[in-house]
Amino acid sequence: MINLSINNKKVTAMEGDTILEAAKKNNIMIPHFCYLEGVHQVGSCRICVVEVEGTKTLQASCMVQAREGMVVHTNTEKVKKTRKLLYELMLSDHPRDCLSCGRNQSCEFQKLGELMGISELRFEGERSKAFLDDTSPSIVRDTSKCVLCRRCVTICNQIQGVGILNVQNRGFKSVIGPAAELPLNSVNCTFCGQCTTVCPVGALQEKDSTKAVWNALFDKNKRVVIQTAPAVRVALGEEFGYEPGTIVTGKMAAAMKEMGFDDIFDTNFAADLTIIEEGNELLHRISEALSGKGAVLPMVTSCSPGWIKYVEHTWPEELDHLSSCKSPHMMLGALIKTYYADKLGVDPKSIFVVSVMPCTAKKYEITRPELYNNGLANVDAVLTTRELARMIKDFGIDFKSLEDAQFDSPLGLSTGAADIFGTTGGVMEAALRTVYEVVTGRELPFEKLHVTPIVGLDRIKTAELLIENPLSGYDFLEGVRVKIAVTSGLKGAAELMKEVAAGTSEYHFIEVMGCPGGCISGGGQPRPTNNEIRQKRLEAIYREDEGKELRKSHNNPAVSRLYEEFLLAPLGHKSHELLHTHYKKRGIYNQYSE
Length: 594
Hints:
Blueprint: E1 2-6, E2 9-13, H1 19-25, E3 49-52, E4 59-60, E5 71-73, H2 77-91, H3 108-115, E6 132-133, E7 139-142, H4 151-159, E8 166-168, E9 175-177, H5 194-198, E10 204-206, H6 210-218, E11 223-228, H7 249-259, E12 263-266, H8 267-290, E13 299-300, H9 305-314, H10 328-344, E14 351-357, H11 361-365, E15 372-373, E16 376-377, E17 381-384, H12 385-394, H13 416-419, H14 426-440, E18 460-466, E19 481-488, H15 490-502, E20 509-513, H16 531-546, H17 557-567, H18 573-579
Parallel strand pairs: 1-5, 11-12, 11-14, 13-20, 14-17, 19-20
Antiparallel strand pairs: 1-2, 3-4, 3-5, 6-7, 7-10, 8-9, 15-16, 18-19
């Protein structure tokens, strides 16, 4: 510990803390802008400058380490004038269209101006180059709003390891984006949307889908069906003033009913279905491998569309390792336009399927031609958690006063195993709960069914499970140690894929989620998202699971009935037609693309 003075107060800090960190720990607020805890620390905006006795110039508090005996002043006349000048210079190169901006009232730049008491614009002059890139189905980039904080550069390069966003040109001509001013849709962007979660302004946002959904709701010839992912129910409440990790499943369903959606289904139903299909696919591959038939192992999960696009670009020769299962919401979309349409006796063309997802990459996913059946898209529109919140507010609903409602049948029933799809390690644990019991006849031997080694926010987690005394028909697994790995964030995926490509991977099954922490911190979730908030959402996901009577996917009676009435068997003809897909080689430079 070290001792220092901030604003004439004696405080302590940990050795190595910056002045900003020391101030935060002692409840002293220093205005800052480009700094983002755990993500970005370069001191580019200088808003956080402070006066340190004994130094000639003001110091960026996010970069300078606190020292023993240091005397710091955060609000001297010189500091306040400098901060105001720096802000006004940034504002002079920023559009003042706040009322029509999608970040109005949730903009960090706007809040900073309010905090600093900016009431007039003193500077006008030449503006930097501005253009709108809306070529991507997932993300819109508006360079006129960019403040060059470089947060997106850090998360794209250092956190995700994709590296398509960088500072191009120099000085006043600097712009952040892909090289050669290429549009996002033409480079190897995964559309994970992590850049949209850290952008402090409206320079990077998800592409708006609310207009398409409103139009469908107002169309009397459309039956509008909505489904919602597990991670949404533990984050949506944040948009209405609830604490992170508050479970609002019932209020969410009630709001959707009030808005006029014809059917409220749960993506969790299809998550249970995914486990049945994916679990059987894994067992088939292991059986083939053990019998010397050359099955491709490890098998890697395919629920995350950002991860899928990343592997298509970066590891195109390893696509056979991916499970052929569609992601759960695409499976449910396909079933709504076949199985459910048949039950209703309606034309599938009249059904408009909306998915509420924590993910911006899902907006891209629904455009893939590989995910159409009978000439129809499985899903017609994707709303992020943030977009759903805006629609609820736009409809005039008092969210907190809503009475809890239930999802509709027959595609609204799910088990706790489906809930944990929303967090890193959840898909793997859900699969193991079913596969282990199907093979051995016994419950997974972990407390509360949680595979402890793969629970948590670590980048890469591993475990192994010994198979002993399997049931008849699974004798080939006797004595096999099933080895698994779990990662979230594309940088972790790269580490595991290097081993796969080199032929040195020891795993049978790998779970990859494209966003750090999994869907709980997807690109479409409420801002901000940090590790403290991730942990609260993760814990809520497990509470939702533990609170359910049914906690294993193979015990879902609605899924069993679906197989009896329609699919007939896992990995069968109908399942392959509707629930499975294939992938596309793209290459890092899109050299395989059409």
